[in-house]
Amino acid sequence: GEEHYNCISALHKSMRGSDENASLYWLARMLEGGEDPLYVARRLVRFASEDIGLADPLALTQAVAAYQGCHFIGMPECEVILAQCVVYFARAPKSIEVYRAYGNVKECLRMHTGPLPPVPLHLRNAPTRLMKSLGYGKGYKYNPMYKEPVEQDYLPEELKGTDFFKAQKT
């Protein structure tokens, strides 16, 4: 019932608050109470990107490995895998930079009126002669071929200069 959601909330908030002892407590309370370890592991995968993000990009790898380990061996053996992941996450630095930036992109899309801007021609794939003759892919600079940074626009003209990482939500 409700306690299921209360406990997962407490686990998330304990890891977010870098309290490894409380994180282990809430994990154990869930597992010892019969919670599906794969449910906990799925929530850890989300937490890795939502709360830790680029502050420690290996957190996502840890979470996916924990999920796979739980899937392979099940309870009770997988409890230590989840415990390791939970402590890793509690100790990890936190960043919501990507989470916020993606939220800003979604807000931009929701607030847009009219048809969405087309993909710029130079970014379009041109697998046929017709597409090439229409200008698809024309002027695209393949970055790995250049020693210096490439000056090239990747957003539609209407969004030129937009920085979703600096945009503030209202």
From TrEMBL:
This is WRIP1 ATPase. It comes from the Eukaryota. The lineage of its organism: Eukaryota, Metazoa, Chordata, Craniata, Vertebrata. Keywords: ATP-binding, Nucleotide-binding. The keyword Nucleotide-binding applies. InterPro entries: AAA_ATPase_RarA/MGS1/WRNIP1, DNA_pol3_clamp-load_cplx_C, MgsA_C. One of its GO terms (cellular component) is nucleus. The keyword DNA damage does not apply. Transmembrane segments: none annotated. GO terms for molecular function: ATP binding; DNA binding; enzyme activator activity; single-stranded DNA helicase activity. Pfam families: MgsA_C. Residues 17-169 form the MgsA AAA+ ATPase C-terminal domain. GO terms for biological process: DNA synthesis involved in DNA repair; DNA-templated DNA replication. It comes from Tachuris rubrigastra.
